[in-house]
Amino acid sequence: MAPFFTFLFLLSTLHLTPTLQQTTVSHSGQINSNSVLVALLDSHYTELAELVEKALLLQTLEDAVGKNNITIFAPKNEALERDLDPEFKRFLLEPGNLRSLQTLLLYHIVPTRIELNSTTESTHHHTLAQDRVELNSQESGSIFISTAKVIHPNAVGRPDGVIHGIERLLIPRSVQQDFNNRRNLQSISAVKPEGAPEVDPRTNRLKKPAPPAKPGSPPALPIYDAMAPGPSLAPAPAPGPGGPHHHFNGMRQVKDFIQTLLQYGGYNEMADILVNLTSLATEMGRLVSEGYVLTVLAPNDEAMAKLTTDQLSEPGAPEQIIYYHLIPEYQTEESMYNAVRRFGKVSYDTLRLPHKVVAQEADGSVKFGHGEGSAYLFDPDIYTDGRISVQGIDAVLFPPEEKTQDEKKTIKVATVKPRRGKLLEVACRMLGAVGQDSHFSKCQ
Question: Where is this region: Disordered (predicted)?
Answer without folding.
Answer: 185-244
